[in-house]
Amino acid sequence: MKRLEGWKLKLLSFAGRATLIQSVALNLPVYTMSSCKCKEEERGKFLTFVGTLFDTIWFSRNAVFFRGNQANVMSARHKMLHKIEEFISVHGNSQDCNELHQFSREKVWCVPNEVHGFFVTDASWKEGRAGIAVGYQDRQSGKWLWSARAMEADSAMEAEALAVFWALQLGSECGFSSIAVASDALLLVQSLNARKLPPCWKSRAAN
């Protein structure tokens, strides 16, 4: 598969938003950044920068595609730097920084060490068409791959479910002994964990 295949699809939404990137990456094994010999505080700042960078690029890209705005690199750069300063100042000025960090680590879901393939999914939906994206990591080799496609779907919920199903298919094709899938579709995740059919977002909107 080609990395970032489907980047120009207007229906595609970002599969690794800033909050997801930071919360998941902070809980990956330390060896993933061992070559950098970074302290935990520095790793946090680096991941904040990467997450904010991706978030800014994706927001600007959607503004051009969906709202017809003109791309303004300097404005996007200013907003990105402002966000980074806000994130760092919040953590730096907190009197209970250690307690806050401990709380966040306890509440954030951690990828189990025994998981072979880790997947991140996302989807967008409009007027019967969906853009779905899957990013995945072979946790033994550390290799990341991303892919996306456009397909038909009757609702946003179905689009999110198709992305998760695609992740399961890729996990089987890659021969992973075990996988974990992260999705920002809370209702879908709760339904799957409870082994129930997820509610239809299209029906909810109609009501």
Automatic annotation (TrEMBL):
Annotated GO molecular function terms are: nucleic acid binding; RNA-DNA hybrid ribonuclease activity
Where does the record place the RNase H type-1 domain? 122-196
One Pfam match, given by its short name, reads: RVT_3
Instruction: Report the superkingdom from the record.
Output: Eukaryota
User: Cross-referenced InterPro entries, in alphabetical order?
Assistant: RNase_H-like_dom_plant (IPR044730), RNaseH-like_sf (IPR012337), RNaseH_domain (IPR002156), RNaseH_sf (IPR036397)
Q: Which residue spans traverse the membrane?
A: none
PANTHER family with a match to the protein in the record: POLYNUCLEOTIDYL TRANSFERASE, RIBONUCLEASE H-LIKE SUPERFAMILY PROTEIN, POLYNUCLEOTIDYL TRANSFERASE, RIBONUCLEASE H-LIKE SUPERFAMILY PROTEIN-RELATED
Protein name, as recorded: RNase H type-1 domain-containing protein
Source species of the chain: Cannabis sativa
